[in-house]
Design a protein that fits this description.
Radius of gyration: 24 Å
Structural class: alpha+beta
Strand content: 5-15%
InterPro entries: Amidoligase_2
Pfam family, one: Amidoligase_2
Length: 466
């Protein structure tokens, strides 16, 4: 496979703004979106809101965008919110398109987060995250999009090693959806459903009796990007009808991995060519955001360049619980700093997800910060449970179905079997099926599918390992 010609990405930061109401006519406070716009502009960050020409800047991804989003306060946060002196506003900060290798994206991201912190100090506002906020990263190859092979590899990697990636996330971001919305928009808790949830419900494999390798074969069977998106990250008609959904395929925003932007959905439609990672909980912690960007871009870069034998070999170890997060991060060639950051031996006890502001408030602030104490206390408790609740996360992981039986002893090493299986499943250089020639990419895909089906049969005990 050919590596990416260029690596680009964008990031979306979702936050809740507790914003002071204007009570002093001598010190008017603008809306949070306008205040953020002004602060970012002063910090030298290219940003657009509603000034002349903003549509072109937004469409070309040359500027940060500030907009509202579907973010909700929890019942406890609502009860504690000081409505008389504050308003709540949902805010999404969508970055410009960064060139991973040539832009100072770390420095610019730091300026954005520092701007939020400065606004807290200046106005008495608070920017915080909760269970409804997310940190989303869009990755692409500049404006060339991502090929089908890269997208397949990414979904296969995320399926095979989902159990490892789950250890990175808050419990509510890895749990299976409890319900769909009755209006068919699937808002509820269905905004980052794990791939394993779809594999048991998309109708591509038998609901009972299939295993992880069957799931990987089903991904390999998809012949186009639209088929990959709707075939894997979709549900059966029966499930859709039972839950009041308008269509079989949920929106890409329902999946932990959104492929909606990889292809046009109708003739002439403009699309971004990005693959979106949606599973990370909302945070404005600088190091967390940076390391998640490094991890996601490493995964895409690896999936674009890895060969047809090393990649199935890595994914085959998905059933082997002795292979963990550190091995995964090292295999996909994450930077050493990212491996150290995420693959720690303990879960830690820090709470990330909201900025701490200074105690000094300018004369323009109409209220004192103590009015937010109850709200932030509830948010901190919920954030702690969500982000560092190791026991809850382990309980969720224990309940999930990763497509394998932990009691089955894995026959190692796959390094000896995968090359042979791939060679035996490979078609000759030029093959005619019916009256159609099979190209190199299709021949490779058929060989990979053959490897997965052979491993699936072996895992079920239908054939002996040879």
């Amino acid at each position: 496979m050919a590596p990416l010609q260029g690596l680009t990405f964008g990031v979306e930061l979702e936050v809740v703004a507790a914003w002071p109401r204007t009570s002093n006519p001598d010190h008017p406070i603008p809306s949070p979106l306008k205040a953020i716009y002004s602060q970012l502009t002063s910090a030298g960050v290219p940003v657009t809101l509603s000034e002349p020409g903003w549509e072109a800047r937004a469409a070309n991804f040359t500027h940060w965008q500030i907009k509202t989003d579907l973010i909700a306060l929890s019942p406890a946060e609502l009860a504690a919110f000081p409505r008389d002196s504050y308003t709540s506003e949902s805010v999404e900060l969508a970055s410009r398109r960064f060139d991973f290798h040539h832009d100072d994206w770390r420095g610019e991201l730091k300026r954005v987060l520092d701007a939020l912190s400065q606004l807290e100090t200046n106005t008495g506002a608070r920017f915080f995250t909760n269970a409804s906020t997310g940190l989303h990263v869009h990755v692409a190859d500049h404006d060339r999009g991502l090929p089908l092979r890269t997208a397949k590899n990414l979904l296969q990697l995320a399926t095979a090693l989902e159990r490892c990636l789950d250890t990175l996330h808050a419990a509510n971001r890895i749990a299976y959806p409890r319900h769909f919305s009755s209006d068919g928009n699937s808002i509820g808790d269905f905004w980052c459903a794990p791939l394993s949830w779809f594999h048991r419900r998309n109708g591509q494999t038998p609901a009972a009796g299939s295993n992880l390798y069957d799931w990987l074969a089903a991904i390999e069977d998809q012949a186009t990007l639209p088929a990959l998106n709707t075939g894997i990250c979709g549900v059966t008609d029966a499930i859709a009808e039972a839950n009041g959904m308008f269509q079989r395929a949920p929106y890409g925003h329902n999946s932990a991995y959104n492929l909606d932007n990889l292809y046009p959905h109708f003739a002439g439609e403009r699309y971004t060519g990005t693959l979106e990672f949606r599973q990370h909980a909302g945070t404005v912690d600088f190091l967390e955001v940076v390391q998640w960007i490094l991890l996601t871009t490493s995964m895409v870069r690896y999936c674009a360049a890895v060969g047809p034998v090393p990649f199935p070999t890595l994914c085959a170890y998905g059933v082997d619980r002795r292979v963990g997060l550190r091995e995964l991060l090292s295999a996909v060639q994450c930077p050493a700093e990212t491996v150290r950051y995420f693959a720690q031996d303990d879960d830690g006890d820090e709470v990330i997800g909201f900025l701490g502001g200074g105690d000094d408030v300018s004369a323009a602030a109409p209220v004192v910060l103590e009015e937010l104490d109850d709200l932030m206390a509830h948010n901190e408790v919920e954030s702690s449970d969500r982000l560092v609740g190791a026991e809850l996360r382990r309980a969720v992981i224990a309940e999930k179905d990763y497509g394998f039986d932990a009691a089955i002893k894995v026959c190692r090493p796959f390094e000896e079997r995968i090359p042979r299986y791939y060679a035996e499943a490979s078609l000759p250089a030029v093959v005619v099926l019916g009256e159609r020639y099979v190209n190199v990419e299709e021949a490779d895909s058929r060989a990979r599918a053959g490897v997965w089906r052979r491993l699936a049969s072996e895992y079920r005990g239908e054939v002996s390992r040879s």
